[in-house]
Write a structure and sequence with these properties.
3 helices, alpha+beta, Cyclophilin, two-stranded antiparallel sheet, globular, 223 residues
Length: 223
């Protein structure tokens, strides 16, 4: 009888130990799963915060233009533009190329048509970002080289879908924002009388000066 009791007691103890091991393993697995979920949630929340679009004011001698940049679809172009804004690169430059039924371009030349040196390397062309060169959008100007944009930009004054990405032969021009107020000022610029000057065509006779470009709404940063 005593032997049977001991055997039953041993079995009970073994069952209890097994139960404790199973419970401990379950709790450990649950804790690890919660720990792995937390960083993923934080990363998702940070990503949502980082795509808040910044806004800049282009202050010209004809009035002010407010532009909302598209940091979500054109992160490279937006970051590049804001770097030039931060360095006050645009202060005192002009809209040096104005074509009434096309666009107005600036960000590269002084009133005496001397080109200001670019402060940063050319950037990757983001023309494939799905944004179209419609009236009121702002895009990066470049040479015939696809990835050659630096500081110069243009504002479309009509719908210019022909500037959108088609293929590698017609790569297009990267839109990175749009005018949200001040299109009347853009239209004043487009109506400027132009001439050829210092080897450049379509230069406004009366300089359209960019007094400054300043960030007025900064993108929120993730914590």
């Amino acid at each position: 009888m005593k032997t049977n009791i001991r055997k039953q007691t041993a079995k009970s103890q073994n069952a209890l130990v097994l139960f404790i091991y199973v419970l401990a393993f379950a709790l450990l697995s649950w804790s690890q799963a919660r720990a792995e979920e937390a960083p993923a949630t934080a990363a998702t929340e940070t990503k949502k915060v980082e795509v808040v679009s910044p806004e800049v004011v282009i202050d010209t001698n004809l009035g002010k233009i407010t532009v909302r940049l598209n940091a979500e679809h054109a992160p490279i172009s937006t970051e590049n533009f804001l770097k030039y804004v931060e360095k006050k690169h645009y202060d005192g430059l002009i809209f040096h190329r104005v074509i009434k039924d096309f666009m107005v371009q600036g960000g590269g030349f002084t009133p005496d048509m001397k080109e200001r040196d670019s402060k940063f390397d050319p950037i990757k062309n983001e023309a494939k970002n799905g944004l179209s060169n419609m009236r009121g959008t702002i895009a990066m100007a470049r040479t015939n080289e696809i990835d050659s944009a630096t500081s110069q930009f243009f504002i479309n004054v009509v719908d210019n879908q022909r500037l959108d990405h088609v293929n590698n032969s017609r790569y297009g021009y990267a839109v990175f924002g749009k005018v949200i107020s001040g299109m009347d000022v853009v239209d004043k610029i487009r109506d400027s009388k132009t001439e050829s000057k210092a080897g450049h065509d379509d230069v406004p006779v009366k300089p359209v000066t960019i007094k400054s470009i300043r960030l007025v709404k900064a993108p929120a940063k993730g914590k």
